[in-house]
Write a structure and sequence with these properties.
With 270 residues, the chain is mainly α. It has one domain. The protein contains ten helices and no strands. α1 runs antiparallel to α2 and α6 packs antiparallel against α7. The chain is globular, with a radius of gyration of 18 Å. It is found in: Cell membrane. Its main location: membrane. Belongs to the 4-toluene sulfonate uptake permease (TSUP) (TC 2.A.102) family. It is a multi-pass membrane protein.
Length: 270
């Protein structure tokens, strides 16, 4: 376990900036996922924090926010746990597996594929305005649960390896593949996202990668953001969640697209 509580060189200004990012990330994560778009880049700017420490500390903070969101959704939306809990169990194991191979699989390998997938998701959602308005399950019985478990395994592994947009991928999969409305999908996604964060932490904590003092400070901000975001989503409804989903996916495309340009394409073009 890491003895690091706060990284050297962490100034009050940097800490305040990271806490604001964590608060905003908790809100975004609670509504549609994708809070890592804000929180992880902010952590990577902290002096003295390695990329692995940033990823591990991000997971510690996120698990508090997603747990708060999941509890709030459970009280206000009552998602079907018969689908969400088995999906979460598979995702937890898959996330642990993903975290264990994260160092062996460079993020640059995945990012171009993720950008293409996100563009497809954004276009599919934008040009099908009725998508996710109401719950109309596409499958029942074993096929429904088999699809849910497959989604949990694939996205759980992805969250352990890399992570950006995990909540958004979960929401879209629950809407497009299983037939839930956006609000119900977001409620279930939070439960699964708790599991993926715990799975990754199950690998990072024994390896001493978590910066505990910073992580717990971020957890407090992330928790507040998660509470506010889940209450906003449940009060505003599925149309609001769909709108925020499109905004977050577009931001993810821009961010990851820039990474692909700087890491892969610009060096080739000289």
């Amino acid at each position: 376990m890491s003895d690091v509580l706060l990284p050297d060189g962490l100034t009050p200004w940097v800490l305040a900036s990271v806490l604001v990012a964590a608060l905003a990330a908790g809100w975004v994560d609670a509504v549609v996922g994708g809070g890592g778009l804000l929180q992880l880049p902010a952590l990577l700017l902290v002096p003295g924090l390695s990329p692995v420490q940033a990823l591990a500390t991000n997971k510690l903070a996120s698990v508090f926010g997603t747990t708060t969101s999941a509890i709030t959704y459970q009280r206000r939306v009552r998602p079907d746990l018969r689908t969400a809990l088995p999906m979460a169990g598979v995702a937890l194991v898959a996330s642990f597996g993903g975290a264990s191979v994260a160092a062996l699989l460079p993020a640059a390998v995945f990012k171009p594929v993720i950008v293409v997938a996100l563009v497809g998701i954004a276009l599919f959602t934008a040009f099908r305005p009725a998508l996710g308005e109401v719950t109309a399950l596409r499958h029942t019985g074993r096929r429904h649960h088999g699809t849910a478990l497959s989604v949990g395994a694939v996205i759980g592994f992805y969250d352990g390896v890399l992570g950006p947009g995990t909540g958004s991928f979960l929401v879209f999969s629950l809407v497009a593949l299983l037939g839930y409305d956006f609000l119900s999908a977001s409620a279930k996604a939070k439960i699964v996202n708790v599991a993926t964060n715990l799975g990754a932490l199950g690998f990072f904590v024994p390896h001493g990668s978590v910066v505990w003092g910073l992580g717990l400070l971020l957890a407090a901000a992330n928790t507040l953001g998660g509470y506010l975001g889940s209450r906003t989503a449940t009060s505003r409804g599925t149309g609001f969640v769909r709108g925020v989903f499109l905004v977050v996916v577009t931001a993810l495309i821009a961010r990851l697209g820039w990474d692909v340009w700087t890491e892969n394409l610009r060096p080739l073009l000289g």
